[in-house]
Amino acid sequence: MKKSVFAFLFGWFVCSLLSAQLVDNGQQNAQQLFDWMREAKGDSVYDQCAPSVQNMITPQTFDGVWKSLTAQFGALVSQGEWHSDVVSGSSVYYCNVKFEKYLLRFNVVFDKEGKVTSLNFAPAPPEVAVSKKTMDVSKVAEQDIVVTTGQYKLPGTLAMPKVAKGDVPVVIIVHGSGASDRNESVGELKPFQELAWGLAEQGIATIRYDKRTLVYPGALWAEAGQHTFDTESVDDAISAVQLAKTLPGIDSTKVYVLGHSLGGLLVPRIAQRLNDTEVLAGIISLAGATRKLQAMIEEQLTYLASIAGNEVDAKAEAAKIMESQPQSYRDFEAGYDPIGVAKTLKLPILILQGERDYQVTMEDFGNWRMGLMRSPNARFKSYPKLNHLLQEGKGKSTPMEYAVYSPVPVYLITDIAAFVNGTFE
Questions:
Q1: Which pLDDT tens digit goes with each residue over 224-239?
Q2: What's domain 140-420's architecture?
Q3: Nearest 5 degrees, angle CA 371-CA 375-CA 379?
Q4: Going by fewer Cβ within 10 Å, which terminus of the chain is more open, N or C?
Q5: How far lies 355's CA from each of 7, 286, 365, 366, 399, in Å?
Q6: Which class is 10-123 in CATH?
């Protein structure tokens, strides 16, 4: 959730996957590819592609990328330093690219044979900012944890009630799309941190953690053929649940999962993979989408263009964004039905929605209510003043709201606590 036309989309805006020969130096080659993209030298980029990739694209695929970026985000202001990492034997090179209106990250992934398996532009991870709120150390205690899924180790935080009689329930908090930190930070806004502290003050523990796409830049693109909702989010949420059940002071029979935005869309999937009531006590979808991503992207682009007084071919732009995703991702998204999965679950379900949210709207909330109207285990509530990042406001919500600090309201935290404690009405 960002201050741009791609507010909800975070990780959806990428250019194209490609393969290329690595000559001598990964950083030099990454820079060369970046320069060719700027200069619209699609032929040069195309010539470096593996035959299998050339069969799916044309040189023109790369020609228009930079023009599209500058049209959306303004002129290039600066390019940051290169950084590198190794993921699954692949070398990842990335640098931040500052435009007038937005900060993107350029990622290039080289495989063991020296070929580029991924090249993409994606929103840069949020900058670290000091929270406007402070933790009440008399009521809340935090400790560092690590959520581990195979080779991926994600730093996280366990927030515990300071004064508790016996073991306590725990809520696993799952991010939206993109490279989010454990607090789902956007500038001074840290909604996950405030949810965690508020729940701890009401006797409920939480686990929040940095998302895989933040800790391992380019990791999903290094394994593009296997990139799905599971590799982006679900697998790590399951690991967090399994970790929670081993922690002292946690009631292993009262483990809940709360997903926000993309996470809210995926909580039925998480519960399904964990065998429903055998592992979890309940799930909470907070601003959880129900519709297909392309339709939602198109709707958001249209809404934001109308606010700015601009014209945009939202349908064409949305199609380009979806086409830039790996086929594995698109296939998974096309086949996943969150409401259909939720209907099969027996555990308690809570659906929460801000009525001023333009990113996941009341249409999605209506879809949840209609789809689960015959499910006795489902509960629903919407909040007239809340936007997508759980801020109160009046009138139409805009991305500029995210630039001004506003706390997560206590009544939302109280409702979540009531659901966990079995007293939600």
A1: 678 899 999 999 999 9
A2: 3-Layer(aba) Sandwich (3.40)
A3: 85
A4: C
A5: 17, 12, 9, 11, 15
A6: alpha beta
